[in-house]
Amino acid sequence: MAPLRFSANLSWLFPELPGLPARLRAAGSSGFEAVEVAWPYAEQPEVLARAAREAGLRLVLINTPPGDQEKGEMGLGAVPGRQAAFRQGLEQAVRYAKALGCPRIHLMAGRVPQGADRIAVKAEMEIVFLENLRHAAGVLAQEDLVGLLEPINTRITDPQYFLDTPQQAAAILQKVGRPNLQLQMDIFHWQIMDGNLTGNIREFLPIVGHVQVAQVPGRGEPSSPGELNFPYLFQLLEDEGYKGFVGCEYQPRGEGWPWGRELWRDDRGCFLLVG
């Protein structure tokens, strides 16, 4: 049973630092061995690769570009009429992933178009998503990369997001049927949308390629007050044989990694988590 490994999400942690190179150095100094970042595209990939090497870090996850955020876009994978932009963004993400040695790319589904009814456009958006995912799977396979689908909760975080439950994401993955496309499990979103974390983790973990964590409802670190029992959840992930990274995607109260130094095991090897 392999111990869990944690990665620092640099889009969330070390917010007091102005740029990714500085955050990479901070993550390395804090004891992380890996990092992830939503959108690294403001920096040249060679600059980030050098900073990661100097900090002794590996990059394990990036996202495809969000699209035109001034127009409210948050990913393009399922957005009708934006197929060409999605493919252009995918090419950019692949370039960065190769330069950074990053094996996984989150293929962002995007939002239901403004003014559209979710139910009315669901079928059309799924067709677009399936088409784009099949294309992406082929592109990623040529570079030995994995694409991830992440459901984002529509109750609190993003009411317009198209992909919002693990059941929906798993059904789409089954329809695409490509082994290099997997599920991204953000426990924060899964708890808000469906709960039943024990059952859902056991059901979907065989197709999960990456995990992310934050406390619910405040989206703080796992040791902050909230409704999730992270010692239990971490133990469950280990017991079920999860071997990937656990991304720390939360709003830190102070340092980016305060609770990590307080993650211990008792004499039986069980997790203890002290806030």
TrEMBL record:
<dbReference type="InterPro" id="IPR026040">
    <property type="entry name" value="HyI-like"/>
</dbReference>
<dbReference type="InterPro" id="IPR036237">
    <property type="entry name" value="Xyl_isomerase-like_sf"/>
</dbReference>
<dbReference type="GO" id="GO:0046487">
    <property type="term" value="P:glyoxylate metabolic process"/>
</dbReference>
<feature type="active site" description="Proton donor/acceptor">
    <location>
        <position position="249"/>
    </location>
</feature>
<protein>
    <recommendedName>
        <fullName>Putative hydroxypyruvate isomerase</fullName>
        <ecNumber>5.3.1.22</ecNumber>
    </recommendedName>
</protein>
<feature type="active site" description="Proton donor/acceptor">
    <location>
        <position position="150"/>
    </location>
</feature>
<dbReference type="InterPro" id="IPR013022">
    <property type="entry name" value="Xyl_isomerase-like_TIM-brl"/>
</dbReference>
<keyword id="KW-0413">Isomerase</keyword>
<dbReference type="Pfam" id="PF01261">
    <property type="entry name" value="AP_endonuc_2"/>
</dbReference>
<dbReference type="GO" id="GO:0008903">
    <property type="term" value="F:hydroxypyruvate isomerase activity"/>
</dbReference>
<dbReference type="InterPro" id="IPR050417">
    <property type="entry name" value="Sugar_Epim/Isomerase"/>
</dbReference>
<comment type="function">
    <text>Catalyzes the reversible isomerization between hydroxypyruvate and 2-hydroxy-3-oxopropanoate (also termed tartronate semialdehyde).</text>
</comment>
<comment type="similarity">
    <text>Belongs to the hyi family.</text>
</comment>
<feature type="domain" description="Xylose isomerase-like TIM barrel">
    <location>
        <begin position="25"/>
        <end position="265"/>
    </location>
</feature>
